[in-house]
Specification:
This protein is α/β, with parallel strands linked by helices. It has three domains: about 5-40; about 70-270, 3-Layer(aba) Sandwich (Rossmann fold); about 275-445, Ribosomal Protein S5, domain 2, CATH 3.30.230. The chain is built from eleven helices and 21 strands. Strands 6-5-7-8-4-9-10-11-12 form a nine-stranded mixed sheet. It has a seven-stranded mixed sheet with strand order 15-16-14-13-17-20-21. A three-stranded antiparallel sheet has the order 2-1-3, with no helix packed on it. Strand 18 and strand 19 (about 395) form a beta hairpin. The radius of gyration is 26 Å and the shape is globular. It binds thymidine-5'-diphosphate and magnesium ion. Thymidine-5'-diphosphate binds next to helix 2 and helix 3.
Length: about 450
Amino acid sequence: MAKPEKAFFCGECGARYPKWLGRCEDCGQWNTITEDVTVGGKAKPSCNSMELQSLAASSEKTNRRLSGLDEFDRVLGGGIVPGSVILVGGDPGVGKSTLLLQTAAALSQDGGCVYVSGEESSEQIRLRAARLGVSESGVKLACETDADVIVNSMGKGVKFLVVDSVQTLQSAEAESIPGTVSQVRACAHRLINFAKTTGAAVFLIGHVTKDGLIAGPKILEHMVDVVLYFEGERGNSYRILRSVKNRYGPCDELGIFEMRQTGLAGVSNPSALFLTHREDDVPGSVVFSGVEGTRPILVEVQALVSGSYFTSPRRTVVGWDVNRLFTILAVLESKCKISFSNKDVCLNIAGGLKISEPAGDLAVAVSILSAGSGRAVPNGTCVFGEIGLTGEIRSVSRCSERLKEAEKLGFKNVIMPASCDFPKNAGGSMKIEKVKNLIEAVALLGMRRI
Ligand code: TYD
Ligand code: MG
């Protein structure tokens, strides 16, 4: 085997340096570079050759396995692909171990399901299993941190392996302490190899850093097949499972769960849930008809506009991109002559959802205008549309699904882009008001006075 060499690695991006630096030149992060050991040296070139294959799929269809937890299967794009490696990241206490113990239990009906923990004792896991009511499932349990021991202990029949968490693992292949870049990488590599050679699906739990990224090198995200983030706010029992990478299905898909006394329960009608606490006739609140992944979700957008005591007024956002808010305020100022230059603006997407689709622009603009003018948006109205820099309201995708969801939930009016195409009956009996630009939207809602 090649001789171990010392080098310095960035804990964020995995970049390698011959000497220590205060700031990583690749990703720009400070204090992330640590000394680590790597196996280097010149290896002898291999004389083996590889076999070339055709692109045509084998006659056997990939048999995805459904876990039975609908929201989890949805995020994976319709079940678990054999031999895939799924990384699940999230803040401490969000419910990663709970989610995967429940999934393991659901998958264990025909045996071959192993849960290995490097963080908790078997007693703790048994207690959790009892709380979840899955003690009698066929999940096999072990507490181990050595990746080599884990892989060597897997018998032939293992179809699903859960490892909690990848940061606690160590392998003899890398000579540094657990949690370092080379250890995380070596252990993940070992488990990925196991998945690819045996066809077992491997779930890796990963911790996230204070910036919300999966700790350890970014390279881990490149190595695995699926990356899921499990998110939720403290004090809120809703949890959102989001796919950010999926080699076998669509990404940006959402699964929504509620954390109960007896574990996580899927939420099959999220729109109703996100609108439960909404009050009618309140200035600053509007419902946005969004699409997350493959399904439409209605959410409440809330804004608050108040006089500012600062020389540069404050812009605070939760669940939305602050730069997009700047753009919308700039368009309102230059195209509609409505200025917020001496106002603080706070924006919040209720329910802890993060919206990234530009289709939310119009709802954001309407909620700010409504908060600023003190006029509530008429009851039963929902809004969607993208705002361009010239103030035009641009068309967005999946209009008919947005309309159908709004109608299903009893909405009466929709304000949407004039240029959207949709089948005649998509909106049912709802009144559809089409707007070409922001000036028309402002006039329609009578919200000029700020
Ligand atoms: P856990 O799965 O241990 O989180 P993680 O592995 O991400 O650190 O979940 C911990 C939290 O979930 C804890 O605060 C208690 C709560 N919880 C419930 O509310 N109900 C339950 O049935 C379980 C098992 C946990
Ligand atoms: Mg845990």
